Amino acid sequence: MAQLINGKELAENLQQETATRIEELAKRGIHPGLVVLLVGENPASQIYVRNKERVAKKIGIHSAVKRYPATITEAELIKEIEFFNQSTEFHGILVQLPLPDHINEDHILLAIDPAKDVDGFHPLNIGRLFAGMPQTIPCTPYGIMKMFEAYDIPLAGKKAVVIGRSNIVGKPMGMLLLAADATVTMAHSKTLDLPAVASEADILVVAIGRGHFVTKEFVKPGAVVIDVGMNRNAEGKLIGDVKFDEVEPIASHITPVPGGVGPMTITMLMQQTVECCERQVLDHE
Ligand code: NAP
């Protein structure tokens, strides 16, 4: 039986640490601020944004959600971002993705001041991560690294396989594992014989977005399995990319869905908002 990696509990502990840091800043009259730009009415985005607002409020981050109609033009949205780039009230800017089709997401990410890019998606921050000088880091893989740390999971010299190569999860995950001296394989939809590749892994991170795709044939006995997936099954229930019931008996550690990676993502977002604030305010004192 695997040890469960309890993301919910770890997230609460880390949020408490961040809250203490915020209290210390408040004594000096510094109040970290996060602005979230939400375009249109995407129901999943509405939920994510509500959750972010709730956690920000709980730990003492000053947060605001700016809502725009789905008809806003790219130029208008960039103008809004430029306004918040200049603001001293907000130290972090997050544009909730996805955006409507007529807006080019790359143009939007490039418009955000890299110093305020709390999501770590700006190419400058991605480049910094690649070059070994990270500043802000995509929150989901960053949260997963915190899980390895908290559960004393060694990475150096281990074989890590990451399934999924998105810019927001898979690729930065691979970079972080490499920086931690793991030997990393990045797998994706064109990978041949995926179960054979995956079952080489000591550390298996799955981020593909297909419910219960990873069965026990993908997993080496004793492997650490991290499930990033968030999918709805036919009954509308939230399920991961990993068939938990089948994999849990053979893994050494495993994350549940829900209660695994999800709560860590939001937690790292808050931590990075505070860090951005500290860099913007304290470094200029
Ligand atoms: P994405 O941009 O859609 O990327 C999916 C990746 O999976 C792609 O690289 C794709 O390969 C690969 N893939 C798809 N089908 C595959 C298959 N049959 N075999 C092997 N690889 C396959 O997704 P994402 O944004 O990274 O998100 C992945 C999942 O994580 C989703 O369920 C999402 O909801 C979830 N997620 C959760 C959190 C959280 O906080 N828990 C945060 C972010 C995302 P190609 O590149 O070859 O197409």
From TrEMBL:
Entry binding sites for NADP(+): 164-166
An annotated Gene Ontology molecular function: methylenetetrahydrofolate dehydrogenase (NADP+) activity
Alphabetical list of CDD domains matching this protein: NAD_bind_m-THF_DH_Cyclohyd
| Domain of life, per lineage | Bacteria
Annotated Gene Ontology cellular components are: cytosol
- Which segments constitute the Tetrahydrofolate dehydrogenase/cyclohydrolase NAD(P)-binding domain? 138-280
**What are the Tetrahydrofolate dehydrogenase/cyclohydrolase catalytic domain coordinates in residue numbering?**
5-119
Enzyme Commission number, as recorded: 1.5.1.5, 3.5.4.9
- Gene3D superfamilies per record: Leucine Dehydrogenase, chain A, domain 1 (3.40.50.10860), NAD(P)-binding Rossmann-like Domain (3.40.50.720)
Catalysis performed (reactions): (6R)-5,10-methenyltetrahydrofolate + H2O = (6R)-10-formyltetrahydrofolate + H(+); (6R)-5,10-methylene-5,6,7,8-tetrahydrofolate + NADP(+) = (6R)-5,10-methenyltetrahydrofolate + NADPH
Q: Which SUPFAM superfamilies match?
A: Aminoacid dehydrogenase-like, N-terminal domain (SSF53223), NAD(P)-binding Rossmann-fold domains (SSF51735)
What pathway, per the record? One-carbon metabolism; tetrahydrofolate interconversion
Q: Which UniProt keywords apply?
A: Amino-acid biosynthesis, Histidine biosynthesis, Hydrolase, Methionine biosynthesis, Multifunctional enzyme, NADP, One-carbon metabolism, Oxidoreductase, Purine biosynthesis
Any GO BP annotation: tetrahydrofolate interconversion
User: So what family is this one in?
Assistant: Belongs to the tetrahydrofolate dehydrogenase/cyclohydrolase family.
How does it associate, per the subunit comment?
Homodimer.
Reported function: Catalyzes the oxidation of 5,10-methylenetetrahydrofolate to 5,10-methenyltetrahydrofolate and then the hydrolysis of 5,10-methenyltetrahydrofolate to 10-formyltetrahydrofolate.
Q: What is this protein called?
A: Bifunctional protein FolD
What species is given as this protein's source? Enterococcus hermanniensis
